Amino acid sequence: MSNPLNVLPLAMAAHGGSLDDTAATQLVSAGLTLLQRSAPLARALYGRRAALLLPTSPAFLVALAASDGRGAVLLNPLASADELAYQLNDANVGAVFTLAALADHLPSAVPKVLLDDAPQHAAVLVDGAVSTIDTGSHFGLDLAGEVDDDGSDDEAAVVYTSAMEGSALGALLTHHNLLANARATIEAAGITANDHVLAVLPYSHLFGMTVTLTAPMLAGARVTTMARFNPMKAVDALVEGGVTMFVGVPAVFIGMLTAIERRGGTIDVPALRVCICGGAALPVWVQRKWETATGCALRQGYGLTEAGPVALFNRVDLPNRHGTLGVAYPGAEVTIRDNVTNAELPVGASGEICVRGPFVGPGYVSGNERGLPRMDGWLHTGDRGNIDADGYVTFEGLIKSMFTRNGFNIYPAELIRVIGAMPGVSRVEVTGVPEPTKEHEIDVTVHGAVDEAAVKAWCEARLSSYKQPNRITIVA
After folding, report:
1. Does 312 reside within a domain?
2. Domain boundary among 101, 125, 149
3. Which long-range contacts (CB under 8 A, 24 or more apart) does 467-470 make?
């Protein structure tokens, strides 16, 4: 007999955790109740995937549960309408869980579920008809089952990434992949039911979802969310909220250091025991300044969507080596290999960081040949590094055509494709310019009979907000 706890949301509900002081069981129950009480929603999702267009909030877990164990496409609220339409079509999405403020970004014909009043009510919009579903009254959950189940090999999530050739690919992750990575996070970060996590990263990205939602829920911990990151409010939460664990990208920590400077340069946060940074290379000066300002070590990790996502981390039971990505996550294998022959390289040699293990997803919705390659079971990440005798990996740069901005991936080929489709444009060049607080700014050179204002308007209509060029140069 199948174990009901082998799917992600039910497993998350089985350990007594809470999200914004609402029990995970209540949020998951609301999601299951929604699906049971809305026949139009059930019909819309039949044989198709669900999608979530939501901020970091309790509604995310409600929607994940209402997706009923099928692959949930995690849509970025910062995405453009064109990007959202492409992903919905590519992934064969039947309905989108969202908020009223975000619904206008979606194609008008797609069925929508508005979760502004979750977990008490939901509004289902299908074929022009609106029905309000009471999701707050239910009989609870029967969570009988093996709580440590490895997880189903069915799809749990789809996240669009890896646009090295111009169009994003939907990376597939199974319940097994995501549960294994979350459990490794619990071990590596020492998460317990006594932890209080401040979640500021988007749940639409696996780093935010796994480290600040799934892992804490599996540990029975408490999570407080911040739908829109505000450095001053985040610092206040660390000082006043009894937060024990904080996770961010480099730009988050840099912004908070500026906020701490306004408070005198240091803060008293005795409860804070672990701070985690990922998403982009962390400057050593940020690590040192953060530790001076807070008294809490800032530990760097590394991962990518296709690897579930975390693969390396300066885990809490080992020395925190500044400037390194840490050691292999529990259960993962990480080696440095030749990016052509796949041969493993010796200690200290520079090569491609490669990952294998239970976290690595099975591939993409479509376009596997355009994604990250796999050789003999090893996922080739497109990132360059070296490994020392103790297993610590140091990042050396990128092999794939990409750079980061505020922790988000920027693919020059994607911008070249989008801008190159503009009438009058003959050629496009995209460059990532290093910037100390945001990792990179985006410089675009456009050849053709267009002007800067028109190119800017074209980009604003078709690209995510974090992909907008900082500087546009026109060459007639």
Report:
1. yes
2. 149
3. 467/405, 467/408, 467/410, 467/414, 467/415, 467/442, 468/442, 469/415, 469/430, 469/442, 469/443, 469/444, 470/433, 470/441, 470/442, 470/443
